[in-house]
């Protein structure tokens, strides 16, 4: 497999596992976070079956996601400030 395609394959594993775990937890009337945690355990490198292959690239993706989350919060905070100022006029 082409080394450039591996991160996309890993991302697909994560998304499919999260959806499956979430749906399973929802059908069992549990909180969705339990399904997500079980999905994470299922695709971890310590269990048999499909797993995320490179921990270093996974760490980089987590850092990028965190930066995106922080940026999103800053944008939402600025938008809320703008709306507040507009409403006070």
Question: Could you characterize the architecture of this molecule?
Answer:
By secondary structure, this protein is mostly helical. The protein is 75% helix and 0% strand. It starts with 5 loop residues before the first helix and ends with a helix. The model has no long low-confidence stretch (mean pLDDT 77).
Strand content: under 5%
Residue-averaged pLDDT: 77
Segments where pLDDT lies below 50 for 5+ residues? none
Spatial extent as radius of gyration: 18 Å
Largest sheet: none
Helix content: over 70%
The secondary-structure element order is HHH
Total domain units? 2
Total helix count? 3
Termini separation (Å)? 59 Å
Given helix and strand content, the structural type is: mainly alpha
The dominant shape is flat
Beta strands, count: 0
State the gist of this model.
By secondary structure, this protein is an all-alpha fold. The protein is built from three helices and no strands.
Sum up the structure in keywords:
75% helix, mainly alpha, 89 residues, 2 domains
Topology of this structure?
Elements: H1 6-27, H2 32-42, H3 55-88
